Amino acid sequence: MLFRSEQAPEEKAAYYDPLEPMNRGIFVFNQAIDEMFLKPVARVYIAVVPEGGRAAISNIINNLKTPVTLANDLLQGDLDRAQTTIARFTVNTIIGFGGAADVAADLGVPRHSEDFGQTAATYGVGSGPYLMLPFLGPSNVRDAFGRVVDTFFDPLDYALDGSES
């Protein structure tokens, strides 16, 4: 019989986290940033911006992220979802005032999101070890790499870049 602190050799290997010391340090850092900066900013945002305004801002950001979802729909070979993504974007941009209103969802076409980490998984790429990212939180190696790839499809990254060509 094994005690809680004891593990069979095969179980120990299954739970081995090669990045644990680094992940713990980044977790502590993220907690400190959250407490010192993010929570106070979020409280002010909630106090100043009415619920309808927050919903509109969220909808606009989701609408602007449509190219990321569309690119990954196509990379996954899912043409039906790609068509749905294009239809949602068109309806929400035109009828929903730039995406401020999610008219497509009201018409029965719910939002979905795809990212390159999910696309890589459809091609059999393993997740890799658990990874705590500074500022961004928990992930794994595949999804962290996917975030980098997704930035190339995200118009917000280009709009907020500020550099001139």
What does this structure look like?
- The protein has 165 residues and is mainly α.
- 61% of the residues lie in helices and 5% in strands.
- It is built from nine helices and two strands.
- It has helices at residues 9-14, 20-48, 51-64, 66-75, 79-94, 103-106, 116-122, 141-150, 155-159, and strands spanning 130-133, 137-140.
- Strands 1-2 form a two-stranded antiparallel ribbon.
- A hairpin with a 3-residue loop joins strand 1 and strand 2 (137-140).
- The longest helix is centred in the N-terminal third of the chain and has 29 residues, at 20-48.
- The chain is flat and about 50 Å long.
- The termini are far apart.
Secondary structure elements and their pairing?
Elements: H1 9-14, H2 20-48, H3 51-64, H4 66-75, H5 79-94, H6 103-106, H7 116-122, E1 130-133, E2 137-140, H8 141-150, H9 155-159
Antiparallel strand pairs: 1-2
Helix pairs in contact: 4-5, 7-8
